[in-house]
Amino acid sequence: MNRTKRWYILLTGLTVLVFSLALLSYIQDRWQIPASSVLKVFNLSWDEHTSGEYTILVDEQGQVLDMMARRVYLNDEFIAADNWRYRVIRIEGNRAICHKLKLEQVSFSEAELTALADTEIPVQGRGNQTIGLYYTHDGESYVPTEGTENIPGKGGILRVGSVFAEKLRNLGLNIIDDKTSHAPHDDAAYRRSRRTAISLIKQGAAAIFDVHRDGVPDPDFYRQVINNQKVTKVRLVVGRQNQNMNSNLDYAKRIKAVADQRYPGLIQGIFIGSGSFNQDLSPRSMLLEVGTHTNSREEAERGVKLFADIVPPVLGSVSRPAAAQTASSSADWTSVLLIILAFAIGAGAYLFISAGSWDKALARLKQFSSIEWVNLMGWSRTGKQKFLGLLVRQSKRSQPGPLKTERSRDKERNGNAGNK
Amino acid sequence: MFMAGYTFGVIMVVIVFGLVFFGLAQRVLDRLYLNDKVALLLLVAMIAGSFINIPLSAGRVVSSINVGGAVIPLGLALYVLYRAGTAREIGRALLVAAVTAAVLYGIGLYTRGVGEPWDVNVLGLLDPLFYYPLVAGIVAYLVGRSRRAAFVGAILGVLVLDLADIVYYLNSGLRGTVSFGGAGIIDTTFLAAVVAVLLAEIIGEARERLQGGPKEAGHARSLLAGLRSPLAKPLPDKTEDNGGESEGE
């Protein structure tokens, strides 16, 4: 195929691709064709768990443990307000039956916890600690205040976030409150907010919070009276589909530990569910659910203000050099081991599939280790060995055999490099 | 700055994950008419480019394109298409992109307003971060039958979704930000491509193993010679490249 023809086909194809999809999306948006009418044709009926419905988590005796608007899956776990950890073992309709696992130990020692909770946060010296706030579902709103549960791009959750940011600033932290819109509220919201989250991290945020609200209809479920004021509780959500899960769960437990000490009842619990929630980006990344849509925004604002008080001691303890010695880092090391293990299992499985037997797989691995790095570092063909840019003269007499083999293999491999 | 306040363990998590991810990414680039060194160089360029955002538009709909997350991957996808041997292969790769984009857009429509993706059957089992590449990888394998088609399909597919977002914001009158590949090398765009290629590779290898070796019928004799004994393969003639349609090494 000649060059012009190739370019012609390529450009035509690309143009057609882009225009047809843009047109499709334009038509869909312009005429507001509901997705259901398109998709029902293919018998992809809506799941009964539409907005406004929710999951009730019950224990094996049928006692209600928790409620949340998100769908719950088998093996999701949660740590209830009383620190008992449960695992979802069965799902019946909108009820998730949970098995009691164990009483969680928070990571702090009693003495440390008391010291942390009692210490007044020094305003000076905290200014260099940067925290990032963002809103994946920026449309989330509070019905009693805003009249509706969703205002795309301008939800009440943004106002709650502003109050959170202001309080944190008053506590001496450096806050980046990123109100970038990630509308519409669909599965791609996290793809969009991922960019915001990474931009916060690039700006030096040591911790990031994704601020949400829940969708449980009963406003009393999230209501709490603390210091004689009506506030909403705050739920912490940890995604279990990412390598930072252990670190973030540990971080969530620290937050809960300090909160339980300072404002008992403020934390609704820690939910450990499907998804990643951009938590793969940072081991100090947390999703917050501040109240539910049937609470008033003012209640939520008061709740998040109290929550802000917890943040500096938790992050302060993280930044102290001594923190590296605490139990917290064992969770981090577990993450390291899990990543390495996952990689080893994945690579092993791939090797086995592609080679067909363990013997062949081992031979391949050997070949890989002998050729791959040599090729990367670049053996030269003049008897000189180039290693990380340094030229080292090789003595041909001392090790003629292996060098020759490596070089000739390398030569052949380079010859084939373009045609794998 | 970046790691301020993190314990050593946390830093190790980040470093180990980075090593694994970049190692895999390098293997993936290695499959795209590039040799090891160029693949490594591109990877470094993408990491550096992740810090550069080129603004495209301002005002109500702000848009920008990230060098590491979109410009280089897009360039690579175009290069792969350009190097493709036959019109049929270009067509297949573009078809993969179109189907990937359409499927992902369809999922977006389906989940719109329902709540979170986790609230919808099946989708809830996986984070979008994972089912994006899964869709791209499976579509690429079913439609394109090659790793290269998987790469092109994932990159173009996700970029087209961003384009659809711009259309959405322009139509709906909402303020919005569209940052093509905005999260740089760990943006969904490149992440989808890496996983899609690995997936296509694993599916390809597994299928080949199941059927007792690579399919030989219908392939040129020179390619089959290379397949049987890769080291004895003659220097590749660029214009004769089959564009990765043969799955075996």
- Note the gap between the termini of chain B: 45 Å
The tally of structural domains of chain B comes to 1
Radius of gyration of chain A: 27 Å
How many domains in all of chain A?
Answer: 4
State the shape of chain A.
globular
The largest contact between protein chains, plus residue counts on each side, is: A-B, 112 and 102 residues
What percent of residues of chain B are in strands? 5-15%
CATH level 3 topology of the largest domain in chain A: Aminopeptidase
Strand content of chain A: 15-25%
SS field, number of helical segments of chain A = 12
Order of helices and strands of chain A: HHEEEEEHEHHEHEHEEEHEEHHHEEH
| Strand order in space, largest sheet of chain B | 1-2-3
**Average of pLDDT of chain A:** 76
Number of helical stretches of at least 4 residues of chain B: 8
CATH architecture of the largest domain in chain A: 3-Layer(aba) Sandwich
Q: Write down the Rg of chain B.
A: 20 Å
| CATH C-level label of the largest domain in chain A | Alpha Beta
- The secondary-structure element order of chain B is HHEEHHHHEHH
What does this structure look like?
The complex is a heterodimer of chains A (420) and B (249). By secondary structure, chain A is of the alpha/beta class. Chain A has helices at 3-30, 35-39, 110-118, 143-146, 156-170, 189-202, 219-222, 245-262, 297-319, 328-355, 358-377, 400-416; strands at 55-59, 64-68, 77-79, 84-92, 95-103, 130-134, 174-177, 207-214, 223-226, 229-232, 234-239, 267-273, 285-292, 384-387, 390-393. Chain A folds into 4 domains: 3-42; 55-102; 106-334, Aminopeptidase, CATH 3.40.630.40; 373-419, no CATH class. Chain A contains 12 helices and 15 strands. In chain A, strands 2-1-5-4-3-12-11-13-8-6-7 form an 11-stranded mixed β-sheet, sandwiched between helices. Chain A has a two-stranded antiparallel sheet with strand order 9-10. Chain A has a two-stranded antiparallel sheet with strand order 14-15. Chain A starts with a helix and ends with a helix. Residues 34-51, 120-127, 317-328, 380-412 and 415-420 of chain A have low confidence and may be disordered. Chain B is mainly α and 249 residues long. Chain B has one domain (8-240). Helices cover 61% and strands 6% of the residues of chain B. Chain B has 8 helices and 3 strands. Chain B has a 3-stranded mixed β-sheet. Chain B is globular. Chains A and B meet through helix 1, helix 2, helix 6, helix 9 and helix 10 of A and helix 1, helix 2, helix 3, helix 4 and helix 5 of B.
